[in-house]
## 1
Amino acid sequence: MNKIRMTNGSELPLEMHKVKIVQKIALKPIERRLEAIKEAGNNTFMLNNRDIFLDMLTDSGVNAMSDRQQAAMLLADDSYAGSESFYRLEASVKKVFEKKYFLPAHQGRACEHLLSRVLIKQGDIVPMNFHFTTTRAHIRLQGGDILEIPNDEALKLKSVHPFKGSLDIDKLKQAFKDHGERIPFVRLEAGTNLIGGQPISLQNIKETHAVCKQHGVPLMLDASLLQDNLFFIKTREAEYKDKSVLEICNEVARNVDIIYFSARKFGNGRGGGICLNDDAVYEKLRELIPLFEGYVTYGGMSVKEMEAIAVGIEETMDMDMISQGPGFIKYMADELIKAGVPVVTPAGGLGCHLDAGSFLPHIKGEEFPAASLASALYIISGVRGMERGTMSEERNADGSEGVSAIELVRLAMPRRVFTMSQINFAIDRIAWLFKNRDIIGGLRWKEEPKILRFFNGKLEPLNDWQERLVQKFKQDFEDSL
Ligand SMILES: *Cc1c(COP(=O)(O)O)cnc(C)c1O
């Protein structure tokens, strides 16, 4: 999308699509929202959708489909083996990634499972720019481990670095010196999820690839969030500003050896897949598909979803489409910064990230600042975000709380889903909450599961701060929801 400048000089992230199908949502009264968050144990994962106004938990499998995707789904060819839908998807994937082979899988983590099974052995180490939760779990499951070597800016919440997701090349060279034989492949994650949807530069991909080649080790790309990353390469990396999105995507692909993706994000559907040229690795992976996923011409995906993804990937090669998410996220971050609210900068893809540690400096890590903020935000707005802080960590070996170095509330921006007025509403309520942040208090465990506790653990407030927050809200907004 070309930049749209308004009369007053400001820029507007103008939508290059119109709405054809809508889903009704409701903003329940604040009294119900208070009840609902208590029932959910102050864990936004445990809220029921019917109590949520804007669901900003994740961008996974909840992006809006286009009319062309919906139309393609009607053409789906139902067949266990040899479905036309698979061949259409394969052609679409090969056009953007230009690899000899494409293998289907039911979602991103399934690709990680199969790739780890084939490529990882006990004691292996995988250098990467940053881990993703399911990636790390699958590598460890096979007896390997990860080595994170992002650049020095990656973990700074406030930064102006255009490519915070890039890998530190010197540290990669050192890793080969230190671990040599134990490195089966190097992994780059596009649109680095856990550090705030931050991109890698194409320059960095090329440099990483050169080092991998020197050592005869393949470079793997997790392309789940590649659409945002392609947008940032085109807009932030001068050399590529006149290249088309497809040309940039092809060049990314030529500089990596194995590509996998979650089509819950890349392709706007629900599924995934792996692309590569290596015959031997392909043969090993192919044997596993019928065992874990489904026959090799659907890999656990429905034929309808394969059609939708085929068209979704084609549509991803269009700036009008891939600029919407980053445009809205930047708008939201800029407006929040104007209101003094601490957010992760520069704005990335995926979502807007509130820096809960700076938002609530009076709440100790052991009292879950990010979870408290996510809970407070839901109460006063019906907006559901995701806690990414101490609650998402694990306890230390000695049983003490594993306090996280950074406390974030992620407000995901599912693509083409929300309108500008909905985003303005969220901004307004977050700014109000920031002014009233002193009212927000901490939380403590009520029910703490042993494994992945953030998914279904329950917390309770340390005192009556939530009731006081509701009181102040009603004073300020009177009869407004
Ligand atoms: C979502 C995601 C995955 C996992 O994909 P699923 O389809 O949810 O299994 C892997 N890597 C990254 C970077 C992701 O964002």
## 2
Amino acid sequence: MRQVYLDYSATTPVKEDVLKEMIPYFTEKFGNPSSLYTIGAASREAIEKARGQVAKLIHAQEKEIFFTSTGTEADNWAVFGIVDALKNKGNHIITTKIEHHALLHTCDFLEKHGYDVTYLDVEPDGRVNPETLKAAITDKTILISIMFVNNEVGTIQPIKELAAIAKEHGIVFHTDAVQALGNVPIDVKDLGVDLMSVSSHKIYGPKGVGALYIRKGVQLSNFMHGGAQESKRRAGTENLPGIVGFGKAAELAYENLDAHIKKISELRDYFVDQVMSKIENVTLNGSKEFRHPGNANLTFEYIEGEAMLLYLDMRGIAVSTGSACSSASLVPSHVLSALGIPVERIHGSLRFTIGDPTTKEDLDYVVEELIEVVNKLRSISSVSQAKGW
Ligand SMILES: *Cc1c(COP(=O)(O)O)cnc(C)c1O
């Protein structure tokens, strides 16, 4: 049976060239980067090379990149680091209703500890209206954190405009750019952001490594305490092979950015077109114009997304009902809810995300199988409705 993976926003496979680069750092080049002898120095050099590769992809200075264990840790560090550094200035944080749980649950935790958090509404296409942000700012606001690209519906935020509002008010601006990295051009200087979270495993690098961009001059307390790694900003022996892999993945993403965007957006448009022309009562959620090039979040009316997911899985097709975190529960997606989509339609929604290895033949296979699965489930659901089940 054909296997088609269409969940590249959940994670990506490690590229062959990335793996090749990593392997020696598990074995002969295993030195602790903090050690003073030669093999330690070689490890240090490898980390500095990777720092340069990641910096280049987002147009940052090397010194502004700090490696972490995950994108989640980078998000936690940004929030807790600002909350601590600016505790004398205020206790109010502004974020949105559509953030990743790495940000939302961190803010929930702070709310339980006496902080004020405003969760901004978004427009029906998933974009934050700059006026909504302006209206939420108070003299106690110390941090604005708005994700660059949403992981469920793929909406791209007007980050430059939102960061400019923060700057006007002297407020630190953080963005979770985990989904943006390698999928949209990023220039931190042009965007005017202070802090940015990224992760390796969403760009064909290994899992368990991320980074926080900290603009030079931004005051941020440490989150991990211990040794002097990462210029004394992030303690803990570095994930050497992971960082080397992240660096290589960032280099490849930089070299292939335009071609990658063109390729996956064409495939995505083809897929959406095929599905919508061959299956009735399907709608595309999120923005058409400001969208992750590989994201198709579709609602299939009158059916359960979970049932579709399982039927597609039996046919070798991997898709998602939303974010990986909520896929184990039946709580409707907080992102689709924030877009104003009614609960019954949310339950009929699936996220297809296309990546580098995806082919047109893969998508043709998925469309064929989708037609069968949708027909089958809709016939069951119309029978159950007719019988009043
Ligand atoms: C995947 C993801 C994260 C978490 O990154 P990890 O490295 O898996 O911890 C954070 N934010 C967004 C938008 C993501 O897609």
